[in-house]
Design goal:
37% of the residues lie in helices and 14% in strands. It has 383 residues and is an alpha/beta fold. It has two domains: 207 residues, Rossmann fold, CATH 3.40.50; 142 residues, Glycogen Phosphorylase B (Rossmann fold), CATH 3.40.50. Strands 3-2-1-4-5-6-7 form a seven-stranded parallel β-sheet. Strands 10-9-8-11-12-13 form a six-stranded parallel β-sheet, sandwiched between helices. Helix 3 links the parallel strand 2 and strand 3. The longest helix is centred in the middle third of the chain and has 21 residues. 40% of the residues are buried.
Length: 383
Amino acid sequence: MPTSPDTTPQSTSREEKLKPRVILAHDWLTGIRGGERVLEQFSRTYPDAPIFTLLHNQGSTSPWLESREIRTSFLQRLPGRKNHYRNFLPLMPRAAESLHLPPADLLISTSHCAIKGVRPSGTTPHLCYCFTPMRYAWSLYHEYFGHNPFKKAILQPVFEYLRRWDRAASTRVDRFVAISKTVADRIQQFYGRPSSIVYPGVDISFYTPSAESEPVRDEYLIVSALVPYKNLHVAIEAFNRLQKPLTIIGTGTERARLEHGAGPTIRFLGRRSDDEVREAYRSCKAFVFPGIEDLGLTPVEAMACGRPVIALGIGGATETVTAGQTGLFFADPTPDALAQAVTQAEGLTWNRDRIRAQAELFSLERFQDGIQAEINALLDAKG
């Protein structure tokens, strides 16, 4: 939906008068990944809320989000923003601050970068559902921008500025809610702020196991954005050595490099519909999760379909997967460690009902109840 000017519908009904004015803010809309699925859950709760974002590639997200009122920053008008928007990182603080938010009863930002730095109108309460503090400036600098000393010397002042700005911008948030304990620890470390934890939800009514009679393929599965910090090169090297089938669903900047290193047992399917992803979950032997994640919804989706997870035992996966019952962890982010875990998993018997029960702890209903409690606490505190 194109950007539209601020308008306020006139209504005299009691229901309209009591309806809260809510604004949603999200870093950017360039795909449909975990963050966008969370945003959609907020948007379905507040369907009249406009979505403010730094930039939007039209048609790249879900039909629901595409049908909302979306307002963008000046980054939308810059050439190259469709495929190279991360190059605009130094401009994102200014872009976030340039967004003109109307008066509202509540601002909810869903952020892993700069959007939490928007300036609310007046005394609008601001709740940030934080995927992680600005990942490019704090925890994943090397993964995204490399170890080249010349490049590092040039970029160092930029990232020092980004860290200073990000820390200062965090004071514009009235209440932080983290998606995991892993992220809550980072918020405390980088911002010196406490946060509550509400795990994001998965649609467990959609992600369900297949019929008992349907066979499981001798094939492993990854569903992921193809970007540096996902550690997909580790999985590719491990499965090259094992000579076992691995299917990778997803798109991203690293696809060409990853395909170049993949052997004949590995196939890339690109973007797939939710129905196709669900069928891939249901039929895979196990789901592979090799990155250090803030939380990770794809392992929960796989478990909702009754399939075990083989995950790196660092970060958010340790909060969703139960070792020995719903999956296995490998300790080091190396091909050898992952290959050993795959071999170990093949020698175990998995109970899909037990795996499914673990995923049910991350239902949409639990997420919605938890978020509503946080919103109530914020509004009560603001009086």
